[in-house]
Amino acid sequence: MIAAASPLDAKVLVLNRVYAVIRIVDARRAFALLAKQVAEVIAFENGTYRNYDFATWADLGSLQQEFESEEHDWVRTTRVVIAVPKIIRVLGYDRLPKEGVKLNRRNIYARDGNRCQYCGRSFSTRELTLDHVLPRVQGGENSWTNLVCACVKCNARKGGRTPTQAGMKLVRAPRQPRRNPAITLRLGSPKYQSWKAFLDEAYWTVELT
């Protein structure tokens, strides 16, 4: 049985002082920044964005729970109930991230939507592998354009061959994403629609931590 996700694992978009996206953190880290008073909450309400310090945001908890219970994740203590913010702004930080999208297993799975790029079927991450389109035994490298998701069956069928040699076709040619693919997946959820205004193409370097 899989344990239910903790509200403290919910993802929070982090902006710098000038409202540029710098990263995504979990709610634990977001609350730590808010409690230290180095960040504030940015909330989307009635078509506009509003700023709240941590104390004010906490005070709004009971009212939000009454009228917006389905719109938030909730952290409950013996004394208060607090909505997990979707966006926070770090007050004394102006810099932007320098790195591009990281090449790692999580981001490749997100880019390919957990679909095997040979048979086109969707699988859980536990049922997927990474395949080198040009096999390593033939000089293939670890790169965005040479790594794809593949189910165990298709990966075994392809073996140490290229798709052409194995008589297989890719669903689509692999490319390097212009912004973190996990963010694109989250934008498909109504819960994260408030992120869209800040995810301008200029900030495709956003990094998950």
Description:
It contains 7 helices and 10 strands. It is of the alpha+beta class and 209 residues long. The chain has 2 domains: 7-98 and 180-208, no CATH class; 105-166, DNA Binding (I), subunit A (Orthogonal Bundle), CATH 1.10.30.50. A 6-stranded mixed beta sheet has the order 4-3-7-1-2-10. A two-stranded antiparallel sheet has the order 5-6. Strand 5 and strand 6 form a beta hairpin. It starts with 10 loop residues before the first strand and ends with a strand.
Write down how many β-strands occur, each being a DSSP E stretch of 2 or more residues: 10
What is the residue-averaged pLDDT? 84
- Write down the Rg: 21 Å
Q: What amount of the residues lies in strands?
A: 15-25%
Number of helices: 7
Number of domains: 2
- Overall helicity: 10-25%
CA distance, first residue to last residue: 26 Å
Largest sheet: 6 strands, mixed
Order of helices and strands: EEHEEHHEEEHEEHHHE
What is the molecular shape?
elongated
SSE-based structural type: alpha+beta
Oligomer: single chain
- Low-confidence spans: pLDDT under 50, at least 5 residues? 201-209
Strand order of the largest sheet: 4-3-7-1-2-10
